[in-house]
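[agent] plan:
  1. take the single chain provided in the ticket
  2. run structure prediction with default settings
  3. attach structure tokens to the ticket
  4. add a short note for the reviewer (M.T.)
[agent] executing step 1
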Amino acid sequence: MHIIESIAAQANDFAALRRDLHAHPELCFQELRTSDLVAQKLGEWGIPIHRGLGKTGVVGIVHGRDGGACGRAVGLRADMDALPIHEANTFAHASRHPGRMHACGHDGHTAMLLAAAQYLARHRHFDGTVYLIFQPAEEGGGGAREMIADGLFERFPMQAVFGMHNWPGLPVGHFAVSPGPVMASSNEFHITVEGKGGHAAMPHMTIDPVPIACQLVLALQTIISRNKKPVEAGVISVTMVHAGEASNVVPDRCELQGTVRTFTHELLDLIEARMREVAEHLCAAHGARCSFAFKRNYPPTINTPAEAAFARQVMTGIVGAQHVLEQEPTMGAEDFSFMLQAKPGAYCFIGNGEGAHREVDHGGGPCTLHNPSYDFNDTLIPLGATYWVRLAEQWLATPTV
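[agent] step 2 finished; step 3 output follows
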């Protein structure tokens, strides 16, 4: 494994910084302390910064030996926000704010990019420009979309952008990257079955929305099993059902909510259309009415082939080909997808291990993402920072076609 020595020598310092971030988690668009700390560190290293994109976003600008004159530029992105989860860990760096926790490792992502930023600013072994994108509000707020709307790619023109996420279960010292879809789109639906309430002892005088909703839950799954191609990946999950207030009353309505995940826009179009048709017609068949709402949140995260291959090449030079795996697509979602809609790039995974790194007094649950017992593995910081540095240096050294 070829870790940059000067980064490894400061591993403890950046681990301490990461733990400070972990102890002070901030939710989407509220990352004031976090963005202040990022800006302070970048400023200490002589890196010009721009603040305010996406409300609390920070962009650092590192020009190479040529002062950026060649016009080549690449973006490296880390997310900064935490989750509304009450932490189960009680070790020293556990969250000091009840109900808020870095349960997805964004504290570690920020620390890795900061470690890379310091090295890039001190050495500048490249021509062109590296843009360091510290993004807010990945966890449902669409911070990437908001930074783009605020002019991210117009103010900081770059030819490609790259992202990275820690991945529990993937061994430490391993990366995973692949071309094409690697994370799904995230979408939500809200269906209200509107019937006619009444006395539960006289159901013939009502239009009971509950059995209609039960049929609808099952009918929606036929879209997955019978409407989409079997080789296409898609998920419809009904996750909330709300109806009634008393055991002897047939309610007027029953509400269903849930999520839809796909890897393509075409399949998403099909699923949304069929869900609406099935819901409206099934309700009509029972004399009920239907209200159907569908919200598209994050598009699928799709790596461009050339950039995914380039990232794999960089990883191979650091950890060896046997430690660079194919990235198994996941139905989880990621708003880096908005950046990949605008620019070529690749989103990769870095192994976070199984959880053995956690200190005494961690929670009793697994070390998995969005779990109250999770903690980022600090041993990844030098490896992740090395990847960012080598990726930027080698990408900027690659001639344009």
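[agent] step 4 note for reviewer: The chain has two domains: 5-183+301-397, 186-298.
[agent] ticket updated
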